[in-house]
Amino acid sequence: MTEKREYRMEELARLAGITVRTLRFYRERKLIPPPRREGRIAWYDDHHLARLNTIAAMLERGHTLTGIAELAEALDHGRDVADLLGIEPTEEEPVRLTPEELAARFEGQATPENLAAALDLGYLGTDGDEIVHISRRLLDVSSDLVREGIPLAEVLAAGKRVREHVDDLAEMFAELVLRHTGEEDLQRLRPLARSVVEAELSLALDRRLRKQD
């Protein structure tokens, strides 16, 4: 079992590539959890370092400190990202993992940058000390693609593109149903929409494979 590492404020700031003043600012804004106190000494650990690295990655991706603070508050109080973004429960089965299990799934590619991208997509949230992935199917497919040699960053980028297309498809199906039935029928008829998309994707892949023959 790996021994838990702890850091004084100056060492943590150096490892995170920020100033002590910035670290104090993040702590005052509650972007990181409070340190462990031992008398007048504040001790930080690897969870604080990981949070600081994630903050840096999210800032690089254009997130504001206010938005990051909302995510940090959700993480520290066991709320998941879907709850924060107001996403309704779905048919997808969520998966609970420890940080170590998530890292093992992606063979060292669970970097702060990839974590930030997964947060952007709403794939990841937390519940206490556990990480929650919003969909077992997406988690399994993502880890399978990584094992096939495709970088996780590219898998997540592709997921973002797919999200844009399927949002349009969902809106198209909803408009079709609502023109002829009621709002209450959307949930009942959603398996039909899924079947259409799965069949059309299968046919599209057939067409793409025939181009190689």
TrEMBL record:
PROSITE patterns: HTH_MERR_2 (PS50937). Keywords: DNA-binding. Gene3D superfamilies: 1.10.1660.10. It comes from the Bacteria. SUPFAM superfamilies: Putative DNA-binding domain. Residues 6-74 form the HTH merR-type domain. GO terms for molecular function: DNA binding; DNA-binding transcription factor activity. SMART domains: HTH_MERR. Coiled coil: none annotated. This is MerR family transcriptional regulator. It comes from Streptomyces guryensis. The lineage of its organism: Bacteria, Bacillati, Actinomycetota, Actinomycetes, Kitasatosporales.
